[in-house]
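Q: Spermidine synthase, please. Structure only.
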Amino acid sequence: MEERVFTDRGELVLRSRDGHFELISNGVFLMDTRSGRSERVLVRAALAAVGPRPRLLLGGLGVGFALAEAVRTDAVEIIVVEVEPAVVAWHRGVLRPFSEGALDDPRVRVVTADLAVWFTGTSDRFDAICLDVDNGPGWTIVDHGTGLFRRSGLAMLREHLRPGGVLALWSASTAPGFAATLDRLVGPVHTVRIPVERGRPDVVYVASCVGDDRGGVRGVRSP
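A: Structure for Spermidine synthase:
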């Protein structure tokens, strides 16, 4: 089975292989349904650093492991922002078992939009923002034009965190210098490396904010 769609960002393919599914963007492998360990760690690491009943935003739906993990928590609201309508549609069909039907959870709201564009039109703030977009800051497949991993993008994400909130980002590999940038712009960074069967470990960067005297957020440099 193979489904192929053409979007403003190029070609997106969902392909079945050996009982699993792969997502491929412009001919480059993005993710598959074989494990999901690092996507689950992304959510666990973020929510471990915030209080109970958090508001959670997931940037990117992918093959659904992060969302499935999120609905198992006590999150009071989960907003999923996914740029590709086809990905959302696949989760109402062949990918539903991997997101475990989480789109039907009443706490979940799916927004089909470019994340950076959506953020410019909302004042919503969250206890945790988890990003699983592209292959991470050091290896982008699609030229998003949004700069989420650049200084301006990280500053924008920070402004949508509540005081004490957490920004967690998934990466297919270590991105030299990125943790230092996160530390300066968001707050102290914790790096989690997740071993994979082949190749270098996946990486989750977790940056925590603190509140300022006006109730906003500011980055704090780690020692």
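A: Brief note, in case it's useful. The helical segments are 37-47, 65-71, 85-90, 96-99, 115-120, 151-159, 178-185.
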